[in-house]
Automatic annotation (TrEMBL):
The gene is prlC_1. This is Oligopeptidase A. Pfam families: Peptidase_M3. It comes from Pseudomonas fluorescens. Its EC number is 3.4.24.70. It comes from the Bacteria.
Length: 674
């Protein structure tokens, strides 16, 4: 091991660029060994008379150090996927860290020590934060099977390891399936409808692989763009078939990377785990720490939402069918809906929508959006010029209040081949206070997938890009503005999904505010703002023919719930999907579609929780009514928002929402169906 390992140094901000493959395993091995020593010391000194500092804080510090180091490795892995040594070493680190966590939560002496603290007289004086933190730790032990007989604990350990393997295999199959398909195009007419910038990107794809012309690949952004803009109907159909049959027994790579058996194995393991832990199903287990209190309540909510959207969905389909008929298409297929919705939108509002993104250059938009949040929350967001990073495009914002640094937000804005093709927020460090009263400052990473600048113009954001930016920024602010002093409460990753998505959904509502968008807008050439009249028309146009998107989200959520609520009743995942699709037959998906095989939410932490997007969206809409009443620039409302919702995982979101709005929570969310 080199004399100085950056992963073993104490840091306020990580030394990203200093970390090499040879640092990984030695660092994780050393941290795990140190954590094991700390656990042994805690058991030796705290068993009889445990106290908060020497038990809870000591182990929280140890757990945080390991978790933070693993996050650094995971983030760096996104730019080092071609480094064989790195990939091998990072995989070993994941195994080592997972084994440590299994051993820790199987330690009966440690569990009993936490129990003694909870049952002690000193626990009576704990504040709500401490009580919630301690209860959450004990719950984690119980859900790890600590109270099960030895043979069942052993089986649960094997199940958890197999679940992790199947989840990784699902993702590997999907990645290989994506990589296995491409389509070279030599005739420009085939790309009619695509923008010059997008065609340049496809041409670059071709050059990178030594091909001529343009090259289509299977990624989410390309799929969405082709479905919406490609005039060549046969191209849309071919791409749709390739995309919706990925990693399946259908399509151009049929049975080569089939996730069907993987998913069946995974679902069986999850159900077995739930039953071992005393739950009726995996969905019941998953929801045990969520706001929704049962799968029945979630199903009731989703079916209500389906009924709410059914009329608009049918109206939109009729309008699109009538419009398509005028364009020579007698019957709409699955690969036609987005295209004709966009064509109809453009026909009605072309002058309004054309060039809209020219008013939202990334640099200026981000700068102004930071100013908006400074005003709203009474904070300072200062971009730092001197920083270590994992890619040259990465930026760093220092978040402060009253000249005191509160945390940091990294911004990784652009699409890269080696990065995920979707936006997300990573949490590097959760806020916590150590035994000496010193805070560890929270850190978040905002990953986006925006198009890079070209020789002709800077990065320009579409309205969809604005929604993504606002959504992820909301998550980041919740991570860094929390006042919770405890590691296992303060991070957004510690929240149930239906609570954790709330801040992102609330901030996404800002993308519909004419007041804010006009203030943010500045043409990248002329510096002129958008007129209010044009902005009103643009938002109205953007909001048309969106019912299919809503219906698709509800289909995904109901399917996810149904998969995890019952043990299939003899059905495989595809048969379950077909059953759920009958709830929304208007979506008209072809029989060869194998949606489940590439539905990565099933293996990335959203299993039995996909409903959270719609659930939190409904709650966020209720909360945003306060801003519609007070104005989005009302600083007092912003302060109350921060106070109500950014307190960590110690207060019910229902309670926070009622405090903020002064109204009871909507009955279809708060009530359990009969």
């Amino acid at each position: 091991m080199p004399p100085t390992n950056p992963l073993l140094q104490r840091w306020q901000l990580p030394a990203w660029s200093d970390v090499k493959a040879e640092h990984l395993a030695p660092a994780i091995n050393a941290i795990v060994a140190d954590n094991q020593r700390i656990i042994a010391e805690v058991i030796a000194t705290q068993t009889d008379h445990p106290n908060w500092d020497d038990l809870v804080i000591a182990l929280a510090e140890a757990d945080a150090r390991l978790a933070e180091t693993m996050v650094l490795i995971d983030v760096l892995s996104t730019v080092k996927s071609a480094d064989v040594d790195w990939v091998e070493q990072s995989a070993l680190c994941s195994i080592t860290a997972a084994r440590y966590r299994v051993q820790k939560f199987a330690n009966l002496e440690l569990y009993h020590t936490y129990q003694r603290l909870q049952q002690s007289s000193i626990a009576d004086s704990f504040d709500d934060f401490r009580k919630a933190s301690l209860a959450k730790t004990l719950r984690a032990f119980r859900l790890s099977g600590i109270e099960l007989p030895a043979d069942q604990r052993q089986r649960l350990t094997a199940i958890n390891l197999d679940i992790e393997f199947q989840e990784q295999l699902f993702q590997i199959n999907l990645e290989r399936s994506n990589a296995a398909w491409s389509k070279q195009i030599d005739h420009a007419a085939t790309l009619d409808g695509l923008s010059a910038a997008f065609k340049d990107r496809l041409a670059l794809n071709a050059r990178r692989t030594g091909k001529s012309g343009w090259l289509l690949t299977l990624d989410r952004n390309t799929y969405e763009y082709i479905m919406k803009n490609a005039r060549d109907r046969s191209l849309r159909e071919e791409y749709f078939r390739a995309y919706c049959t990925r990693a399946s027994d259908q399509g151009p790579q049929a049975l080569q990377f089939d996730n069907g058996p993987v998913l069946q194995k995974l679902l069986g393991l999850r159900h077995e785990k739930a039953r071992l832990l005393g739950f009726e199903s995996f969905a019941h287990l998953r929801l045990s720490n969520h706001m929704a209190n049962s799968p029945a309540q979630v199903e009731h909510f989703l079916k209500q939402q389906i009924e709410h959207t059914r009329a608009s969905l049918e109206q939109d389909i009729q309008a699109l069918q009538a419009f398509a008929a005028t364009q020579g298409v007698a019957e709409l297929q699955a690969w036609d809906f987005e295209f004709f919705a966009e064509q109809l939108r453009q026909q009605r509002s072309a002058s309004t929508l054309k060039g809209l993104r020219e008013y939202f250059p990334l640099d200026e938009t981000l700068r102004r959006f930071c100013q908006f949040n400074e005003h709203l929350f009474g904070i300072k967001l200062a971009e730092q010029q001197d920083l270590s990073h994992w890619h040259e495009d990465v930026r760093l914002l220092e978040v402060s209040e009253y000249d005191q640094v509160m945390g940091y937000i990294y911004v990784d804005p652009f699409h890269r081949e080696d990065a995920p093709d979707f936006a997300l927020t990573n949490t590097v460090r959760n806020r916590r206070i150590n035994a000496e009263g010193r805070p560890a400052l929270p850190i978040a990473i905002l990953h986006c997938n925006f198009p890079s600048a070209t020789s002709e113009h800077p990065c320009l954001l579409s309205h969809k890009d604005l929604r993504v930016l606002f959504h992820e920024f909301g998550h980041c602010l919740q991570q860094v503005l929390t006042r919770s002093p405890h590691h296992n409460l303060s991070g957004i990753s510690q929240l149930g999904r239906d609570t954790g998505e709330f801040a992102g959904q609330l901030f996404e509502q800002l993308s519909l505010s004419e007041e804010l968008l006009q203030w943010l807008s500045v043409h990248y050439k002329t510096r002129a703002p958008l007129s209010r009249t044009r902005l009103t028309s643009a938002l109205a146009a953007i909001a048309t023919h969106t019912s299919r998107d809503t219906a698709t989200l509800l289909l995904e959520a109901l399917f996810d719930l149904e998969l995890h609520r019952s043990e299939e009743n003899g059905r495989n995942a595809q048969q379950c999907f077909e059953t759920v699709l009958q709830q929304i037959p208007q979506l008209q998906l072809p029989a060869y579609c194998r949606f489940a095989n590439s539905f990565d939410y099933l293996v990335t932490g959203y299993e039995a929780s996909v409903y959270a997007y719609k659930w939190s969206g409904v709650l966020a809409s209720e909360a945003f009514k306060r801003f519609e009443r007070d104005g989005v620039f009302n600083a007092q409302t912003g302060r109350e928002l921060r106070e109500a919702f950014f307190s960590g995982d110690s207060t019910s979101l229902f309670s926070a929402l009622e405090t903020f709005t002064g109204q009871p929570v909507a009955a279809d969310l708060a009530a359990q169906p009969d």
